[in-house]
Amino acid sequence: MCTLEKQGSLFLLTLTGDDDHRLNPTLIDSLLSALSQIKSQATPGSVLITAAHGRFFSNGFDLAWAQAAGSPSQAVDRLHQMVQSFRSIVAALLSLPMPTIAAVTGHAAAAGAMLAISHDYILMKSDKAVLYMPEVDLGMTFPDYFTAMLRSKIRSAGAVRDFMLAGRKVKAAEAVKMGIVDSAHDSAESVMDAAVRLGEQLGGRKWQGEVCAEIRKSLYPEICGILGLTDRSIVSKL
């Protein structure tokens, strides 16, 4: 599950409960509900910070839930259900009318890494936390929108290759060098402190949220096209 609180102009969305924060239908629905609420309450200067309790930011899709369906074909159907449902979270983050920050204080694997990368900024804890796309090790291909997002957000072809094709586990300092993460910090507390400071700086600009969302979509046309997010022109001041 997740919780949502508001501190001034900051929306703090936190994954709670299970330490793995596996993205199953329950958590996906909870996140979608929170993002819908955030969008409905957005005002100029609003900022989203997403964080998680425990050792993981998110350990990806809930494969145990899929396998519990019984037969292999039913397990695949459940996996496809999660893949399709999670598209809506990525689309919601790309079209959210405010800057977004992921405060990654634990491991972010597979769809969990995608959740982090779908934000505008990523701040990450140093030490043992990693970003990891293990699909090649699990014998699974990538959904089209995963591939498009990673190509859109990671500018180095070599970094994309190592991240996706080699299943490379990337720690914070290395992720900064690869251009995936914006900054690395020594502790979970310092990650959150830095995220709040950045959020307050961004919020202080009082940008119009719809303009932020449209500019974001224009930056990533491939992934937005796959998700069906269309551009529109906005001129708020002349």
Task: Describe what this molecule looks like in 3D.
- It catalyses: a (3Z)-enoyl-CoA = a 4-saturated (2E)-enoyl-CoA; a (3E)-enoyl-CoA = a 4-saturated (2E)-enoyl-CoA.
- Belongs to the enoyl-CoA hydratase/isomerase family.
- It contains 11 helices and 10 strands.
- The protein has 238 residues and is α/β, with parallel strands linked by helices.
- The chain has a single domain, classed as 2-enoyl-CoA Hydratase, Chain A, domain 1, CATH 3.90.226.10.
- Strand 2, helix 1 and strand 3 form a beta-alpha-beta unit.
- Helix 6 runs antiparallel to helix 11.
- The longest helix is centred in the middle third of the chain and has 23 residues.
Topology:
Blueprint: E1 2-7, E2 10-15, H1 25-41, E3 47-52, E4 56-58, H2 63-67, H3 72-94, E5 100-104, E6 107-109, H4 111-117, E7 121-125, E8 130-132, H5 135-138, H6 144-153, H7 157-164, E9 170-171, H8 172-177, E10 183-185, H9 188-203, H10 209-219, H11 221-227
Parallel strand pairs: 2-3, 3-5, 4-6, 5-7, 6-8, 7-10
Antiparallel strand pairs: 1-2, 8-9
Helix pairs in contact: 1-3, 6-11
Based on the structure given, which CATH architecture is correct? Alpha-Beta Complex
Structure annotation, total helices: 11
| Rg over alpha carbons | 17 Å
Q: Specify the CATH homologous superfamily.
A: 2-enoyl-CoA Hydratase, Chain A, domain 1
Could you give the distance between the termini?
44 Å
Mean pLDDT: 95
Strand content: 15-25%
**CATH domain topology:** 2-enoyl-CoA Hydratase, Chain A, domain 1
Structural class computed from helices and strand pairing: alpha/beta
